[in-house]
């Protein structure tokens, strides 16, 4: 059983100019005290063709975390435009919000982002070289994709390829499950 549950993620300042920072108000709950930090990351997927264009926009460590409900705003700068292939600048891409404990990712929230020009003329006839200062990003906050991974929350050492979650034997590292989250205003609530 997971010791951390995301209760809500609200996408702030959306839609927004391309160069504005990303902002997420994250509410989560710990079912018991965590002795080590939670590692939260925001990752911008620069191209669906290759992970080499993924950019970790920011990483924040929260902890140790006491039992109970917690909330914070996670803000990250916009991606470096020089690291995005020209053909992938305008259109749909993905932003990932991940959380790990003891270097084990246990949840990933993925959002579709549409980058497009505000000016109708630029939209109809896009320039050969992207004009980032004229782009607007729109995060599809109402329909995120949530993936949960089983991890070892305790100090217990397992045999290679075996994981335990609160003392219950689980599948190997590749084991994961997905669930749908329900829209709640500008954010999401996870269904348990």
Automatic annotation (TrEMBL):
- Where in the cell is the protein located? Nucleus
Q: Where is the composition biased (Basic and acidic residues)?
A: 157-167
Entry keyword annotation includes Transcription: yes
What InterPro entries does the annotation carry? ASF1-like, ASF1-like_sf
Residue ranges annotated as compositionally biased, kind Polar residues, are: 173-192
Q: Does the keyword Membrane apply?
A: no
Chain intervals for the UniProt region annotation (Disordered): 157-192
Main subcellular location: nucleus
Q: What is this protein called?
A: Histone chaperone asf1
């Amino acid at each position: 059983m997971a010791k951390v549950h995301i209760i809500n993620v609200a996408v702030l300042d959306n839609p927004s100019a391309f160069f504005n920072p990303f902002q997420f108000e994250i509410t989560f709950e710990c079912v018991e005290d965590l002795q080590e930090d939670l590692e939260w990351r925001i990752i911008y997927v620069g191209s669906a063709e290759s992970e080499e264009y993924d950019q970790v926009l920011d990483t924040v460590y929260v902890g140790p975390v006491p039992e109970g409900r917690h909330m914070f705003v996670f803000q990250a700068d916009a991606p470096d435009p020089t690291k995005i292939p020209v053909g992938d600048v305008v259109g749909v891409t993905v932003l990932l919000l991940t959380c790990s404990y003891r270097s084990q990712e246990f949840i990933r929230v993925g959002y579709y982002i549409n980058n497009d020009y505000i000016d109708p003329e630029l939209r109809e006839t896009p320039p050969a070289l992207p004009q980032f200062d004229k782009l607007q990003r729109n995060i599809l906050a109402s329909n995120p994709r949530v993936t949960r991974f089983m991890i070892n929350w305790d100090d217990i050492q397992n045999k290679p390829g075996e994981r335990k979650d609160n003392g219950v034997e689980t599948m190997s590292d590749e084991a994961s499950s997905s669930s749908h989250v329900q829209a709640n205003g500008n954010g999401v609530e996870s269904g348990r």
